[in-house]
Amino acid sequence: MIYIGCHLSVTNGYEAMGKKMLDFGGNTFAYFTRNPRGGKSKEIIPEDAAALNQLLRENRFGALVAHGSYTMNLCASNPVTKANGLDMLQKDIDRMEAFPGNFYNFHPGAHTGQGADKGIELIAEALNSVLFPQMQTTVLLETMAGKGTEMGRSFEELRAIIDRVELSDKLGVCFDTCHVWDAGYDIAGDLDGVLQRFDDVIGLERLYAVHFNDSKNPCGSHKDRHEKLGEGCIGMEAMKRIALHPALQNKPFILETPNDDSGYIKEIRTVLSWMK
Ligand code: FE
Ligand code: FE
Ligand code: ZN
Predict the structure, then answer these.
(1) 133 Cα to the center of ligand 1, angstroms
(2) Confidence check: pLDDT of 254 > 70
(3) Which pTM value belongs to this model?
(4) Averaged confidence pLDDT in the chain
(5) How many Å lie between the centroid of ligand 2 and the Cα of residue 156?
(6) In degrees, to the nearest 5, what angle opens at C-alpha 181 toward C-alphas 213 and 106?
(7) What is the Cα–Cα distance from 142 to 68, expressed in whole angstroms?
(8) How far is the CA of 88 from the centre of ligand 2 (A)?
(9) 171 closest CA partner among 191, 152, 184, 187
(10) Which residues are near ligand 3, the ion (C-beta closer than 5 Å)?
């Protein structure tokens, strides 16, 4: 089995998200740690955090996959952008300690013309300055589609970042199916081959979570446009093979498909029907 859920809004607080996911029939979820385009984060009230933690335990949820801001760019050439990114990362990681044992995933960044090697160096430097030995969160680098100067477009780039981080036991990867496909990995035609490649380059033990999305575009398009399950170029049969793949069992799968609540409920049901 896998854990399945979708992105939820933190607007009504933390326990409210857990309750909503119970209503949706899922057993994990994601939320933005702050406004994805702005930077404000929702205040954590200790009672609310405790209530969510209890709900997660009692209902045997899989790990949550909190998502960092899109505006956070740890390898920006603009020093102000870079410093803001580091500040967001630091605060997000500290705040995650209110929800021990969960995941914090973020987009590695965009090197904005400095080159991938410099990008790798800067992302690792940022992580080295914020990770701490006692932290109870695993930080996940997201596989990216490779739009523009986006970092994380290949398993090798992610590996190079991990290699440069001292507390690398705190680090893992979030495997976004739309992004991996758009980056040029044929998960529809050769899922075993792609996961073998992931294992050879990064190691499957670093694959902690999946963003479960179909793609509007063909493999290798570097576009990053998500589609509803089965309505995109990856297709339903391939999505099902991914959810049932032995290497991906017991991991949280997060839907980031273009859906309203009823669409997410339907997709969660579809995925759960595969598990039977
Ligand atoms: Fe993402
Ligand atoms: Fe994603
Ligand atoms: Zn995306």
Answers:
(1) 25
(2) yes
(3) 0.97
(4) 97
(5) 18
(6) 65
(7) 10
(8) 19
(9) 152
(10) 224
